[in-house]
Design brief:
The chain is built from no helices and 11 strands. The chain is mainly β.
């Protein structure tokens, strides 16, 4: 089971760190992705990380402002978001897929396990 947390209300230009906790599984066996969905919009890829954290990729809208990382010893994955703007307002979800080393996925249909989202609201 995955659980995203760390969302909240932040002013434009601020930062947040989202966390994705895994329970009942060893997260090191999974590639993890972050996605977001704003009201009335389609789900959007944010970032992904391979099992060992050696490979990462980012969506164009967050590239340079976000950093995905993981601590497999703690069964946690993080998304550090900086220079937030109102356009970043959305529900953020983490997703997992068991895979081999060095692989990540950037399409939502490639993931088969999803956590409940956490709401990020950025005020102008």
């Amino acid at each position: 089971q995955l659980q995203a947390s760390g969302g909240g209300l932040v002013q434009a230009g601020g930062s947040l760190r989202l966390s994705c906790a895994a329970s009942g599984r060893v997260i090191s066996a999974y590639a993890i992705g972050w996605f977001r969905q704003a009201p009335g919009k389609e789900r959007e890829f944010v970032a992904a990380i391979s099992r060992a954290g050696t490979r990462t990729t980012y969506g164009n809208s967050v590239k340079g402002r976000c950093t995905i990382s993981r601590d497999n010893a703690k069964n946690m994955v993080y998304l550090q978001m900086n220079s937030l703007s109102p356009d970043d307002t959305a529900v953020y979800y983490c997703a997992a897929r068991a895979t081999v080393t060095g692989v990540y996925y950037s399409e939502h249909y490639e993931y088969n396990e999803w956590g409940q989202g956490t709401l990020v609201t950025v005020s102008s």
